[in-house]
Amino acid sequence: MTVLAFRTPADVSAAVPTAVAHLNNGGLIAHPTETVYGLGSRANEADLAALADLKGREPDKPFLLLIADMEMAVDLGLQFTASAEALARKFWPGPVTLVLSGGEGELPETLRGPGGGIAVRWTSQRATATLIDQLGAPISSTSANIHGSSTAPGTAALVDMFADAVDSGSLLVLDGGVLGNVPPSTLIDCTGQAPRLIREGAIPLEELRAGVGRLAP
Known about the structure:
The chain is of the alpha/beta class and 217 residues long. It has one domain (3-215): DHBP synthase, CATH 3.90.870.10. The protein is built from eight helices and eleven strands. Strands 1, 2, 3, 4, 5, 6, 7, 8, 9, 10 and 11 form an eleven-stranded mixed sheet that branches. Strand 10 and strand 11 form a beta hairpin.
């Protein structure tokens, strides 16, 4: 089965073992997030290359990392500055992506951006967070679209867009329903002493500053 229901707690309980096995066998997934559908894989070089190939984009452009809790990020050696920790504790789980230093020897260098950091988010999409928790490792993630095209709002469009991968069984689609027109996550570079806003998204700058004051960008 290449499309699995992923909406109710019962759906998630039934789908997660299959999704975990699929990922551990080098497969790719399409999954809901709190913003748009994502394409994901395990965070290793071979699977990241397969993900880049599926999306049709340059293999050296890094993907973000989705985690199930802050402990997972710490265990991977990712480093939280005072600002990063304040932002994470206030806005995670949720649509705030933090670019963090660290992770050397624990994560593939292809996840690292040109500034040396790795983009990380503790997703608030409960079903996907459950999958990551049961996998026991983060997954890489990118918006579910062919490079340069619009993101698919639901699984019918996903199946059409990636028909060959779905038909071959290399892409497992987790059907979380049609997602709303939500902006992408807010992206903040926390690799330096002062945080830097890269992209204002679902959490506006005013809300960041109201939440953590001077520790916001």
